[in-house]
Specification:
The chain is an alpha+beta fold. It has 3 domains: 99 residues, Alpha Horseshoe (Serine Threonine Protein Phosphatase 5, Tetratricopeptide repeat), CATH 1.25.40.10; 158 residues, Beta-clip-like (Beta Complex); 188 residues, no CATH class. 47% of the residues lie in helices and 10% in strands. The protein contains 19 helices and 12 strands. Strands 1-2-12-9 form a 4-stranded mixed beta sheet, with no helix packed on it. A 3-stranded antiparallel beta sheet has the order 3-11-10, with helices on one face. Strands 4-8-7 form a 3-stranded antiparallel beta sheet, covered by helices on one side. A hairpin with an 8-residue loop joins strand 7 and strand 8. The protein binds S-adenosylmethionine. The site of S-adenosylmethionine has 18 residues, from strand 2, helix 15 and strand 9. GO terms for molecular function: N-methyltransferase activity; protein methyltransferase activity; S-adenosylmethionine-dependent methyltransferase activity; zinc ion binding.
Amino acid sequence: MDKSPSPKKTAGGHVPPDVDILLSRMLSEIASDADIETYRDMVLAYEEVVDGAEVAKSDIKAEQLRKAGNRLYHARKYKEALGKYNEAMCCAESGSEHLAICYANRSAIYYEQEEYELALLNMALAKEHNYPAKILDKLDVREQSCRKKLEQGQSKNIALCPRMGVTVEVNPRVPFLAKGIAMRQYPWCNRGLEAERDFRTGDVILDEKAVLSIVDVPLKYYNCSHCSAENQHSLIPCPDCVFAMYCSEECLERDKRLVHRFECGLATKLRNVSMYTSNMGPKLFLYGLTLFNDDLDQMMEYCEQSVNAGGDPFTLDYRVYDPLAEFKELHKTVLNTNTEIEGSLKACAALSYAVLIKNPAINSSLTTKSHHRFLLNSLLHYTRVACFLMWNSHVNLSTTSTGHVLSGLTSVGSLINHSCDPNVAAIYMGGRLKFVLLRPIRAGEQILTAYGPTWYDRNHPPVTYSFVCACPFCAQPSMQHWLATGRELSLGAERNADMLLAILQDEAFNDVDKLHAIQQYIQRHIRFHPEDTLSRIMTTYRLYLLEMVKKDIERMGREAAVARVFE
Ligand SMILES: C[S@@+](CC[C@H](N)C(=O)[O-])C[C@H]1O[C@@H](n2cnc3c(N)ncnc32)[C@H](O)[C@@H]1O
């Protein structure tokens, strides 16, 4: 997991060449400090580039994709097969049997993988969507087999794995955050998070649901378009477009109501102009418009007078969740302008403007020049806010594919700053941002995570951020000197490290035992930091944490499937 610096000029292979050429022209011909109108004018001069036809649902296409999925299934390429079946579902026309057959095919994949709860869920979905009666027998046999196996206790949920929710007393006003964490201003990074009390290695101090999430185009058939969770087993298609899937009816309903009702009829055009997850900017604008009850004038009045006022999510009481109040705090974010990426941000905003004005509901509310100016400036502002605050996770769909991005925007979690010597692991997965302590934190210390590699990830290729790193590690007069202050491990700590290694390699210990063993080791021997063995253990620990969060999400997925099928 890392926090990528900026939208890139080229885009994971899905941007049609014409948009790519237009982008390159904007970036080479327009100065990055030119005003946004200059970018808009160039896009509008080549409007046909962003005016492609919308891809419609088609049973012919659905069948082709399903057959491609079958070939992958027979080659045991299950992940790729799931992607094809999901895409086929998105393409299937209303009431088409392809939808039901794809659910049944998904159940076959889960059956093969001994994920019996997930197989049952998909068989239930197939039956709810008019699965053809003439082939129902086959499905019934599989269903009986799944039920029997679960009765015999053959569930992957039997293995113990740690629960990764907040593990310490919570802040009464912000129940997804530990009590004793506050926002502070720092000279080198503006807002940040500070501990007001001591915390221990392994404490989970944040478990925040993203306000908005977004997935890169190649992930559209693998992750929920609303919460970004990787729940292929429960994905259902948007009934109206071919580019959105949801992990639940609830996510579908929420996204339709909050944002997707604007995007749905423009889904192809928006996909064409998105660079990784650059559409988070327009998404944030559309979300705000919904929260202002589609009243553009009211939104404009508030936003124009409070831009750059300085946002503070700690002024909110999350027990009585008010999404508009939260949006306003996000809107007020003071941004750190970065000239290197300004051109890309303006190009993204101008492209999304050219697409959004094609939405009849938006267009009809743009009755004055000020409305148009507000839309354009807002798209730029929210593209900057998104780039500044959102979390990016990188996902490899296969061993050969390059990473794809999924991003989440959070209110409190987004306040964390980067350090090359972090004290917290920030994990964005399943639409939630979690902070887990990598080492003890004392009252008064800033809470810091590594957006990319740490100083001890020596094999990781270097990462360029959209800011010049001024973290406490880099601010040392000499990093080597700082490293040299690390001690040698004591004999006892060395012996403990050998014991820890033995525990990690021993299958008799479960995940909970192993995680506790690493946490205890770090908690006990942190006085030797920075030291090589200890930092190698912290690297292993971070990987373990990622694995544990993934397993916890999978566990919840099986539980939700059981609840859906049996209750
Ligand atoms: C996710 S935001 C963190 C919250 C931010 N400090 C604020 O005031 O809202 C990321 C931004 O914080 C600043 N920042 C974070 N870590 C930094 C570091 N190590 N050195 C310099 N600036 C940093 C950069 O401007 C970066 O783009």
